[in-house]
Structure formats: structure tokens, C-alpha cells
Amino acid sequence: MSHRQKHPARHWAASALLAASWGVWSLAQAQTSVTIDCSPNSLAQLNTGQPSTSNAQVDSRWRFQYLSAYAGSDPANWRSFGDATIVTSRVSSWTSTPAASSTAQWIAANAWGGQPYVDGANFGNIDALFQVQFNIDPAVSLGSFAPSMTYSADNSVVDIFINGKSQLARGLGTWGLPQAGSTNQFNYNGFGTNRWLTIASMASPDWQAGANTMTVYVKSGNPYMGFAAAISGSNACLPNDAPAATPAVSGQPDVGQTLTGTYGYADTESDPEDSSATGTRYQWVRSDNASLTQAAQGTVMQSGNTLGAAGTVTYTTQAADDKAYLYYCVTPVAVRGTLVGPEVCSAAFGPVKTTTTPPQPATPQAVPVLGIWALLGMSGLVAGWGLARSRKRVRA
């Protein structure tokens, strides 16, 4: 059972008082989005109960809305969020702020943590949603982003949504929320002494560089409802490694030949490569130096965007490349995290040489060949000529 008895008259009075102030609540203040980077106390900016500069009664970061109980946790059922009010007259059974923070305060629909009595058929139970918006700096490693959250709720936290994605549905065990799946979610004592709980690591594939939302889903029985949290974690702000490239050149080192440049792409956090027309860049470079490490150390003959590691870039050698070394230099670019990696050049290719055509030997003249009948005829003529000369000598 809950920490309070159910009094219909009290519920009606609380509901009427809340209705009177609801018009003010619905005119939401402009919440400010902070950027989580590696500066000190970066995550503490997301603690609940930090007053807005324009209205000290409302939270500067967190927003709130409620649904009738059993409305379903699908974000498609959610309405627009309004202000989350800082609770200044909390019920005595609510514990103070967690030891991890002196600034985290309770937030709710109003200053006393009262709950609207909107669902009489279900004893006034409601689903309360508390949401904070913030940015993650591109230098932060998403693969390592895992802040911790120490929290308390009246009555229970049953799911947490990251950018509209249920972490319960993700199969992450809702990060160890003991109330999820229990039969007394609307009466769970998540608010009393020593009831602060800690999610040590909120790692999720749903974090993204830039804008993020985290929505805490609370099940609450009447007549009080609220949530408080302190967020921290030294492991939540590890730097993001830059992407890396490993270029290579293939082909024949001769003038007039077409060479092919290729490279491998790698990123520690698995941040994908930017294969667009403004992504990873290449340069074909010529140099007399056999140990060039940067394109600026040589002469750039051709440059542009690679359009991704899956493709290739070609270069046809010229007469000016004779006796020089050629390099394929690549600057990798990722689509998130640390965007631009260091330029890397291939090993020296060459030296390029001019190929000369060796002189061809002269073609020998063909010797006429007589057939068998020609030889017989020739033999007869020679024999007749010899016989005639012999007779001429006898007469003499």
C-alpha cells in the first residue's frame, strides 16, 4: 500500500487547487538546453530542481506532463510538456536530496507535490513524465557515454526513454529499476528514508551527438507525486577518438600508367565515415623525398573527396613525374564524434620512370627457293650447255 490513505474529499480539494493553477503551469517557461562536455560538473547541470532565471518556482531544465493511468507508455500517447515546478513544501515522508548532490530537489506539478485526481476508476493513479533536454558535445564518446543517476520517486520509476526509445524495450533491464514489472507500481515506496536508488551506468545505443532528451516514466498513486535526481559520472565524458585512414597505391610506376589509390577507414567508437561530397578528402602528391609524411611537403597534382572508403581514386602519371615518388594522402572525416582525423600518406610509390621502346632488329631478306621441277629444268639446261661446249672443243 501507499504511504497515505485515500481521502476522496482531499483528492477533490487538491484537484480543484491544481486545476486553478493549471493555466499558469501550461504556459511553459522557455527551458534552457545545456551542453554536456568534459568541463567540471558538466552533468550536474541536469540535476532536478535548479530554478529558472525567469521564474524561480520552475525547473530550468526539466519539464513535466501526466497521463491518465494505463494510457500506455508509447510516446505517441504523450502530450506537450509543461513546466516542472520545484517542490518547496514537500510531504514529510519525502527524503531530502541525495548525498551525491546538495542541489538536486524534488520536482512535480506544483510546489507541494500534489497530484491531480483524474482517474477515479483507478483510484486516482496517473502516469507522470519528467523530461530533460540537453546536448552532447561532439567531442564526447557516445560509445562510452554512461552517466549515473541517483534518484527518488513517488511512487516508482518504471522506465526511462532516451530520445523516445524505451530502455525497457531495449532489453537493458531498465538499468536495474526494481519497480519495473512489479505488481504495486502505484504504491511502491520509492520516496522514503534510504530509498534513494542509483543507476550506475546509463549506457545506451540511443544517445546521439547534439540534441538529446531523457524522459523518466513515473507511476504514481494519489495524493502526492514527484521526482528528484542527481546526475553525475566521471565515465560519462571520455574524449572521442578521431577517425583514422590507412592509404595505399597500386599500379605500375611508369609514365602514362593509371594508378589507383585506396584506403581503410577505422574509428574507435565506430562512428561512421562521412562519405559525402564534403567528407573524407584525398590528395595525390609528387616529391623527390622517399619519406614524405604530409601532402604539404610535396607538390599536389590532384585532390578532392573520396566519397567513402568503399571507392577508389585514380591518377594517370605524367612526364613531370619521371624519377619522382608519388603519394596518396587521405584525411578521414566521421559523421559524428570527433569529426576530422589526421592526414595520412601512403608509403612512397616509385620512383616513376619513363619507359623507352628498344630498337627492333632488321628483317632478313627472303632467299628465293626453286621447286623440284624448276631444279630439274635448270639441271637439264646446265647439262646441255656443258655438252655443247664439249663438242665445240672436239671440232677444234
Automatic annotation (TrEMBL):
<feature type="transmembrane region" description="Helical">
    <location>
        <begin position="366"/>
        <end position="388"/>
    </location>
</feature>
<keyword id="KW-0732">Signal</keyword>
<keyword id="KW-0472">Membrane</keyword>
<dbReference type="InterPro" id="IPR026442">
    <property type="entry name" value="IPTL_CTERM"/>
</dbReference>
<protein>
    <submittedName>
        <fullName>IPTL-CTERM sorting domain-containing protein</fullName>
    </submittedName>
</protein>
<feature type="signal peptide">
    <location>
        <begin position="1"/>
        <end position="30"/>
    </location>
</feature>
<keyword id="KW-1133">Transmembrane helix</keyword>
<keyword id="KW-0812">Transmembrane</keyword>
